[in-house]
Amino acid sequence: MTLDYLTEIYSSFEPFQSPQNDGDDGDDVYVDCQDVRGGWDVVRELGHKITRSKKPTCQLYSGHRGVGKSTELLRLKEYLEENQYFVIYFAANDQDIEPQDAEYTDILFSCTRHLVEAVKLKNHNPLLNWLNARWESLKDIALTDISWEGLSLEAQISQFAKITTNLRATPDKRRELRQKINANTPSLVEALNSFIKEAQKSLDSNSRGIVLIADNLDRIVETKEEGKPSNYDDIYLNRSEIMRGLACHVIYTVPIAMVYSGKGTQLENNYDKPNVLPMVMVRNPDGSENQKGLEKLQELICRRVKKIESNLGKTLTLTGGIAEPDTDTPPVFDSPETLKQLCLMSGGHVRNLMQLIQKAIDWTDELPITAKAAKRAMEEARETFQKTIQEDQWEILARACNLQQSDNDEQHLRLLLNRALLEYRYYDENDKLKIWCNVHPLIEEIKKFQDALKQVKSL
Predict the structure, then answer these.
(1) DSSP, residue by residue, 388-399
(2) Residue 250: enclosing H or E segment and its boundaries?
(3) C-alpha span between 272 and 264 (Å, rounded)
(4) Distance of CA 231 to CAs 165, 237, 273, Å?
(5) Taking CA 445 as the corner, what is the angle to CA 442 and CA 447, rounded to the nearest 5 degrees?
(6) What is the percent of the chain with per-residue pLDDT over 90, rounded to a whole number?
(7) CA distance 160 to 119
(8) Residues 250, 125: contact at Cβ < 8 Å?
(9) Most C-beta atoms within 10 A of its C-beta, which of 27, 117, 176, 420?
(10) Neighbours of 413 (CB within 10 A)
(11) Is residue 218 within 8 Å of 256, Cβ to Cβ?
C-alpha cells in the first residue's frame, strides 16, 4: 500500500503539468499566495482591466518558468466566465508553435485557429471565407489534395488545423506559409476581426465579449540574425500594432527576458506595463524565515496530497509534532523540519518545490520521506547550479546578494533567467512597494559562493 502512496504523491507533484490542464478541479489545489507575492492578484492585475474597459484590451503577462503563471491564468478564466465572458484559453503546444523558431505569423495563425475551433459560425464565417479564397495557394502547405468546395464546416476547420500543424512540424513549409501570410496579413487581420464581431453576435445575449488568452508564448526562444531585429523584437515591438489589433480582449504571455531587458520601456509604451508574477517570499530581506510564505507552500503540498487520501494531509505541519495518522495512512514526512527545509530550499519557486519533492521520493522506498532523502534531493539540485554558474558569475552573485538588488545588464539578466538570482516583492509598513533580490537558497552553501561573498563583504 505504501508503494501506491508514493506513486500517487510523485504523480501529484508533476512539475510541468497544471492540475486544471490535467482534467482536475483546480480549485481543490489552488492556493492564494497574494499576501506573500507583494499583493499580486490575477483578478486585480489582469481581470479588472478587462471587466472595466469598454474597448478591447491587450495585456502582456510574464514571470519565471514554473512560478505558477498558467495556474493563475486558468483562475482568471474561471473569474471571467463567471462574469459572462466567452474565454478562449490555449496553451501553445506542438500544434501551435515551434519554440526554437517562432515568429509573429505563427502566433497570429494559432490565435486564428483556436478562435475558429471555439466558435463554429455556420452561416457567415469570414475566416473560412478568407482561407477559401486562398486555398489553391495554401493547400500544398496543408499537404492535401482535398477540394475546399463541398467540405463540411468541421472538415474546413480540420484543414485549417492541418496548416498550423505543418507550420509547426516542417521548417520549409513554415517559411513558405509565413511568406504567404506576411503578404496577406492586412486581409487576414480584417477577416479575423470580422469573424470576432460575427462571433460576438452568435453568443448568448448576456455575453460581455470574447477574451483570448495565449499561454506558453514565454517558452519561445530568442533568435537573432546579424542586421535583423530578434524574433522577440519583431513579435512584441515591430508587430505590436497587429498583436494588439484584434477586436477582442487579448492576453499574451511574454518571455521574461524581454521584460527584464532594455526593451521593457518600449513594451510599456506599446502595450502598457507588462504584468510579472513574483516569487513566493520564504525569507525576509533580513534573512529571517517568512512564516506566511512557508505556510502557503505547506498548504500547496497539503492540498495535493489530500486529493490522494484525506488522512495524508493530517501529517503535514510546519510546527509542532507530526500528527498521528490513521493506522493505514503513513505520514508523508518524517518531521516538520524536513517539510520546512524543502519549502525553504525551493526559494519560493513552485516548480522547484515540486522537483525537490519528486527527487526526494526517488530516494524513498516507503513513506515517510526522510530528512536524508530530502537532503539528497537538495544536493543533486545544488550540483546543477554549481555546474551551471560560470567562474566570472560567482562575484556578481555575491554582490547582488550583499546589496539585495540586481543591475539591469546582461550578466544579471542571465542569472535571473536561470534562477540563480530570485526576485521578491512586498509592501512595507508605509505601503511602499519593495523589490529585492537574493541568491537561490541552494547556492548559499556552495563554497565558491561563500568565498566570493566573504571577499565582497571585506571590501
Answers:
(1) HS-GGGHHHHHH
(2) strand 249-253
(3) 10
(4) 20, 10, 20
(5) 130
(6) 55
(7) 14
(8) no
(9) 420
(10) 18
(11) yes
Evaluated on CA atoms 192, 195, 197, 203, the torsion sign reads negative
**Distance between CA 281 and CA 344 in Å, rounded?**
9
**Tens-digit pLDDT profile for residues 226-244:** 888 999 999 999 999 999 9
Q: Indicate the length of the chain as a whole number.
A: 459
Q: Under a CB-based contact definition with an 8 Å cutoff, are residues 318 and 336 in contact?
A: yes
Among 369, 365, 359, residue whose Cα is nearest residue 316: 369
Going by DSSP bridges, is the β-strand pair 209-215/85-91 parallel, antiparallel, or unpaired? parallel
Bridge-partner residues for 425, per DSSP? Answer: 435
Nearest to 418 by CA among 361, 368, 365, 352: 352
pLDDT digit string (tens) for 28-82?
788 999 999 999 999 999 999 999 999 999 999 999 888 999 999 999 999 999 9
Residue in the block written with cell 465572458: 85
pTM given for the model:
0.88
The x, y and z cell numbers of residue 307, run together, are: 486529493
d(CA 450, CA 444): 7
Measure Cα distances from 93 to 67, 78, 106, 166, 219 in Å: 19, 21, 12, 13, 10
Within 13 Å and on the Cβ side, how many CA atoms surround 245?
20
Burial class (CB in 10 A: 0-12, 13-18, 19+), 211: buried
Phi, psi of 129 (to 5 degrees): -65, -40
Q: Are strands 433-439 and 249-253 parallel, antiparallel or unpaired?
A: unpaired
Rounded distance between C-alpha atoms, residue 373 and residue 157, angstroms: 51
User: Locate cell 472595466: which residue?
Assistant: 52
pLDDT band at 1 (very low <50, low <70, confident <90, very high): very low
Contact 211, 203 (CB under 8 A): no
Measured CA to CA in angstroms, residue 289 lies from 39, 277, 295, 347, 413 at distances of: 19, 21, 11, 11, 26
**What residues contact 278, with CB distance under 8 A and at least 6 apart?**
37, 38, 40, 63, 67, 423, 424, 425
Helix (H, G, I), strand (E, B) or coil at 263: coil
Q: Tell me, what's the pLDDT at 146?
A: 67
Grid cell listed for 425: 516583492
